[in-house]
Amino acid sequence: MAFPTVPCPLHIFEPCYRLMIRRCMETGTKRFGMCLGDDLKGFADYGCLLEIRDVKFFSDGRSVVDTIGRRRFKVIQHRERDGYNTADIEYLEDVMVEGTAEQELQSLHDVVYDQALVWVNSLKTEQKERIEGHFGPLPGKDSELQSSPNGPSWCWWLLAVLPLDGRAQLPFLALTSLKDRLSGIRKVLLFMAHCRHR
Asked: Which residue intervals define the domain Lon N-terminal in the entry (predicted)?
């Protein structure tokens, strides 16, 4: 799974994906979409646009691609080109709220962020170091809660590092309600805290 604002290093070795990366670089977009695989449809209906920050090529044709998540999308229709999947997509954005709903959202946000902090700080030192080495530290709170169409970056960081299966992560990518995303994250954190205290 790839998420907005979260680094996603990739090891590319299959010829079709080597071609795709080369095309992304040559066209100058330096962007491609990534979706979770699906046994029936080929890939999931929701994904994340990745931006290539750097590519290291090896003599045997393999490459390590340093990417970061940018925008969420919904797949409208898909096909294949030269062995890799392509799709028409529609970008997703969180629905903005105002007034009382915004105040409630801010309160929920602060509570869930504090829970996230507790969970991160409860990790064993080597676990935390491994996560931070790969994804960086837990991002701080955004000063403007609804300034990004994807919501706060710490939510995506947390979803990337929580021990969840891709199928459990996918619905979070599809949500356009920050309140629903925060409520879902809160449930996961409460469940994990409950399991730890058993």
From this structure: 1-193
Q: What is the CATH number of the domain that holds 45?
A: 2.30.130.40
The predicted model gives 64-69 an average pLDDT of: 96
Q: Which pTM does this prediction carry?
A: 0.91
In DSSP terms, 38 is beta-bridged to 42
Alpha helices in the chain (DSSP H): 15-27, 99-122, 125-135, 153-161, 166-174, 178-196
Contact 125, 161 (CB under 8 A): no
Quote the number of domains for the chain. 2
- CA-CA distance, 118 to 102, in Å (whole number)? 24
Asked, for residue 121, whether it belongs to a domain, the answer is yes
* Domain carrying residue 82: 7-91
Answer with the one of 34, 58, 91 that is the final residue of a domain.
Answer: 91
Calculate the CA dihedral of residues 150, 153, 155, 161 and round it to 10 degrees.
Answer: 120
Over residues 76-87, the pLDDT tens digits come to 998 888 988 899
Structure tokens at 197: 């205290």
